[in-house]
Structure formats: C-alpha cells, structure tokens
Design brief:
It is built from 6 helices and 2 strands. By secondary structure, it is mostly helical. It has one domain: DD-peptidase/beta-lactamase superfamily (Beta-lactamase, 3-Layer(aba) Sandwich). It has a two-stranded parallel ribbon with strand order 1-2. Helix 3 crosses helix 4. It is globular, with a radius of gyration of 16 Å.
Length: 158
Amino acid sequence: MVATVSAFALLPDIRPRSGRLGDTRIGRITIRNLLTHSGGWDAAISGDPIAAPLSRQIASPVGVAFPPSPPAIISYMLDRRLDFDPGTRIAYSNFGFLVLGRVIEKLSGQPYAEFVRLQVLAPLGISGENRICRRISCRPGYRQYHPLAGGASGAQPK
C-alpha cells in the first residue's frame, strides 16, 4: 500500500542541498503522514516554506529566483530538522501537500495540475481552467488566492 511507503523514497531525484538529510526521521514520513498533516512539520514553530517570508529566504541559499520551485523548496527542507516525530501529532502543513504533489507527478508521469484535471475534476464533471493565483494581480482565468486571517493559507485545526 502506497500510504505506508516512505514519501521521500518515491522522490530520489530531490536531494538535500547539503547532500545529507537534516533529520533521519524524514525517511520515516509516509504518504499517510503527509495526507494527515502528521509528517513532522509545524508552521507555527519553523515557518511555512511555501509562503513568504520563508519562501523568499529559501530562494537565495538554494540559488534560484523567487518564488522557488517545489523541488528547490523540498531540497531546502530536507536539510532541516523536523518539528516533531512523524505520526505523533497533527499540524497543518502546506509543505506536506507540496511533497504530495511531487509524488503524484512521479507516480502518474503527469504534471500535478494535469493529473488533478483529468483524474479528479473531469470525473466529477468539472471542466475549464481551474488555476490558483497567489499574486496580487492575476491573469484572466485564474482564481484569486485569499489567505486566512493571520497569514494562514488553509484551514487550521483548533
């Protein structure tokens, strides 16, 4: 079952910047942990690497333009320590879902957006362009992304 497989074993082409994992527990993170926000990251403790200001800080050391790509963010995060043991508690994690997106791409052989369009939205009868824009001004056809109060970017468990 894929849910119990080490998520990062499925992404061997994305390595830590330093060449060494920042935390050996990363190898224990499963797909189920990512799906249940129990992978070991807590944005309240170490920040959200998907959102500024941390994403802006990631771009420079990784040597890429802002905003950093998902593989650049993952590479950066693989150098860092986890905030807790995988599977021991829940903390909302945008980063965990970023990793899941790369796993979907790897296993399906399709870009994430295309996979979602064909395998999730189309069977539900949802068609058309469904894209999210995180910028202040969006191109036509994009949905505006609105973070929650306090800068959170998704529903936070109470």
